[in-house]
Structures
1.
Amino acid sequence: MSIGRRRFIGLSAAMAAAPLLTACSGYKKVPAAGVPRSDFDEDSTAEQVTEGIDLAGKIAVVTGCTSGIGFETMRVLALRGAWVIGTSRSLERAGDACRRVRGKTTPLALELADFDSVVRCAETIRALNSPVDMLILNAGYRGGGNERTIVDGVEKHFLVNHLGHFVLVNRLLDRLFLAWQGRIVVVASRAAYRSAPEAGIRFDDLTLERNYSDSLAYGHSKLANVLFSLELGKLLKGTRITSNSLHPGVINTQIDRNVNRFLQFGFGVLAALRGKSVEAGAATSCYVATSPLLGSTSGRYFEDCSAIEVRDSHLQDMAMADRLWFVSEELTRDYLVKHERPDWSEFENGLRKTGREGS
C-alpha cells in the first residue's frame, strides 16, 4: 500500500508530536467519591453546560483571554450575564478580544512571569471594591526547543504556570471572600500525571537541571497547578470559596506556539483525530465555575465535566501539596499579603459603602 507524501509527512509529524498530547492510557481513573456526577461528557460545549444559568451581577476574571479556551470561556460567561475581566500579556490584545465579545468585559494586562505585573493587575481588580465570584486561571506557557529558560532564577514553566497564578490568587483572595460563593478554577492538564517527573515535584531541582525536556517541564508545572488547587481547597475548608483543577482536553490552540512548525503541524493532526473543539474545550472550565451542583465541591480534579481520581499518580498527594505551598510562599514572599477575614459591615449589596475610607 502506497502512502502519499503529504500524508506521510502528516503521520510522521503526528508521531513526533505525540508527547505533546497527554493521553490517559495506563492510568486508572475512577469517579471522585462524594461529588455529584454531571450529565455532560467530552462532547459537551461551554454553552451547553451553562444553559439556563444566570450570571448577572457576577464578576469573573479569566487569565489568558485572547484565544482558544480562554477566549471561549470569557465569551460564554459574558453571554450568561457575567462581567468578565480578561487578561493578557498585551493590553492591546486583551482589548481586541474583549471587543469581540457580546456582553460586559474589561481588558487588563497581566504578565505572569513578572510578579510586579501580577500585583498591578490584582490591585486594579481590587480597586473595583467588588466581590470576585469566579477566578479562572487559564493562561499557560509551553516552551519549545528543549532548552531551559530561567527567569529570575526560576524555570519558566514553573514560574508562569504556577507561581504567577499563586501570587494572583493571594492578592485577590479577600475579594473572593466577599462573593456569595467564590470559585477558583485552575486549568491544568493531563500532563500533570502523564509528563511530570515520576517522583513528582522536584523540590531538590526546581530548575530542572537534570534530564530537562519541555514536555517534562510543562508536566512539572501542571502537577504544581493541581497540587496548588488541592492545598488551596484544604486551606479554604469551612469558607464559601472553592478551588478545583481540571484538564480541558486536547485542543489545537496556541499553547504549542513556541514549538517548531513540524511539531505544530503534527499536534494539529493529532488534535483533529483525538481532540476537542474549542467550544468543548472550554466546557469543563465553565462547568466548574458555574454549576449549582458544585457549591461545596473543593480540592477536586475534573476531566470532561466530572470529578475523578487518577490512581498511582501524585494528584491527590496531600503531603506533596503542603510542601509545594511552603516552597511557593518562600519563592514569592515579597509579593504576598497576609489575609484576614473581610469586615462585612463595610459592604452593602456586594459593594463597599460610599463615604467609607477606601471607597
2.
Amino acid sequence: MDTKDLGDIYPEIIRNLPEADIPFKGVHGWISQSKDHQIVFFDIEPIGEVAEHSHGPQWGIVIEGEMELTIGGKTDTYKKGDYYYIPDGVVHSAAFKCRTRLLDFFADAERYKPKS
C-alpha cells in the first residue's frame, strides 16, 4: 500500500514501531527504543502551541512542514531539513501551524512510554 494514500510519509516499518503515549491531541509518534535513548518519529497536526516544558537533552530534525521553536527564550522557525538541539533542562515550547513531521533523539530513554 502506498503510504502517501494514508497521508503519511512514514513507511510500515516505522508505523509498526510502538506508538508513543503523547498527551496532546493531534500528535502521534512512533518510538525506536534503546536502553539509553529514544528516537521518536513524530506526525503533528496543526495543533497550535505546546506549552513550555523541560526534560533531558533532545536533538531533532524537521522532515516535513515547519514549527516555531522557542529554546531558552529564543524563538526561531524551523523548516524541512533544519535541525535543533535542546540542552538538558532548558525550557522550551513550540507552535505548529501546519502538519509537521519530526525525528527527535532523546537522551532520556524513558521520555515517552508506549501506548498500552
